[in-house]
Amino acid sequence: xxxxxxxxxxxxxxxxxxxxxxxxxxxxxxxxxxxxxxxxxxxxxxxxxxxxxxxxxxxxxxxxxxxxxxxxxxxxxxxxxxxxxxxxxxxxxxxxxxxxxxxxxxxxxxxxxxxxxxxxxxxxxxxxxxxxxxxxxxxxxxxxxxxxxxxxxxxxxxxxxxxxxxxxxxxxxxxxxxxxxxxxxxxxxxxxxxxxxxxxxxxxxxxxxxxxxxxxxxxxxxxxxxxxxxxxxxxxxxxxxxxxxxxxxxxxxxxxxxxxxxxxxxxxxxxxxxxxxxxxxxxxxxxxxxxxxxxxxxxxxxxxxxxxxxxxxxxxxxxxxxxxxxxxxxxxxxxxxxxxxxxxxxxxxxxxxxxxxxxxxxxxxxxxxxxxxxxxxxxxxxxxxxxxxxxxxxxxxxxxxxxxxxxxxxxxxxxxxxxxxxxxxxxxxxxxxxxxxxxxxxxxxxxxxxxxxxxxxxxxxxxxxxxxxxxxxxxxxxxxxxxxxxxxxxxxxxxxxxxxxxxxxxxxxxxxxxxxxxxxxxxxxxxxxxxxxxxxxxxxxxxxxxxxxxxxxxxxxxxxxxxxxxxxxxxx
RNA sequence: GCACCUGUAGCUCAGCAGGAUAGAGCACAGGAUUCCUAAUCCUGGUGUCGCAGGUUCGAAUCCUGCCAGGUGCACCA
Length: 572
Description:
Shape: globular
CATH class of the largest domain: Alpha Beta
Radius of gyration: 28 Å
Number of strands: 14
Low-confidence stretches: none
Helix content: 55-70%
CATH topology of the largest domain: Rossmann fold
Mean pLDDT: 93
Largest sheet: 5 strands, parallel
């Protein structure tokens, strides 16, 4: 469609030039619009703004453009209509179908992939849970959004490095160490390490309200950890090991992989060189006994580099990590998938890098997203007010399992289990990715687990039907000659054709909801087609053509779901 | 207090490099199954696009101000 727009724009530029107007092609392309209603065609060009130049009503100009195209016709265009001030181009569905088929013949299942990012190295830092805390539904967002971006950039040909920047360093570990020393229970820990650590963490904050000296003790404990004291180090290793093992299970369920899992602790040895560098550049100042970089000139509060007790902070480690990664991977872009509440933090350390002379700092992006919130406010790990992701996934799988028993009782137990897992987890992933990530998600079990309408299972169901048809229509040969006999076929082909453009939009905005919504629309187009057009039992030409439409729908649904990181079952 | 984000149908949300009567899902009512899985499809919308100005041939979309909710603003991450 992009190429077609280019060609249309070129013709319009020629036409306008003949009439003494000299616009850029890009300018024309920007004016193209996708009509709200399909009856107005596929590409619309509004001509209102030229009324003054031509000293004619828009309709007349539209007619002139139409005439121009009719004397220089494009085979991709089936029909041109002038309505009001618009020139509406109706793209030939036959041409769309043939282009799609051609593409699939050439590229197979990779038909939607491109190489626009070939040769580029892109780092996506995502998930990054705190290993002192359990994996809550709050961590789901960074995980699935990051995974989506990793998939997307890969599909566009980039060399992508997905990094799980595990939160395994910081004062929180001081807290955990103190709490473990005071109230830790070896037996409880062995039984369920993560839950036990969580209860210690919550208890720490509760007790610290009564006894604020605990906070100081925690900071001291972290300082000892950072300076390499044996006892603290051992405890830390123990906490870390068990947490990572636990997280691994969750990642497996979510079908998420990382190219690198490096904790913040990894950078603790690289802090001094950062401090020295900032010192050299004359950016470092002592303020209230701490080391800071002042950012007054950029309308930001100072960025804290070292606490007054000499231990490091989040920002320091992020700066060290960025420099390290630039040296190691020489990335073209680095994206941080982290909640929007940390926006200031990112602006600050991006700026510190920039004024330190690292020009590549402008290739850093904070991919922010809204947080999960309850009716009565924010989730808080500290207060123990948190929903565990595992519980959400289990509940979702449970619900699916029940529905499956009802709808398809003939499935074997083992197969049903596998499919319920795929559908249940997929439903949660889809639910998270279907809305603009910038918005907060109001958590309610009802909504997260809602399986009606705009949901993962809805898409999966269409996919399953496609598979069913292909299984039952083995005898039918695929047909590559367009043979439209019903309007729903035309609408389906047009929807299928949109896919590449949607990928482009999702890429430019780094947002998954464009793809999620597209998949819902495609599914709707398909089910309408499904209800109106049978594949099996029609004459040869019709059956063959329709079989190919089903095949195209199948691979498009699969590809879109793959980008989102959602698996689809062959039956359900 | 300052900065940023959000505000669209009863609810959850699309649409916002300006463009045609502002669209989905849920909920509610009715209908469709001799036929590729009815987890489906079809029919039914009188919405102050938070409010008020401005720019424009044209504003949900851009600008300004205000209101509401959220987030952040030095030793947490």
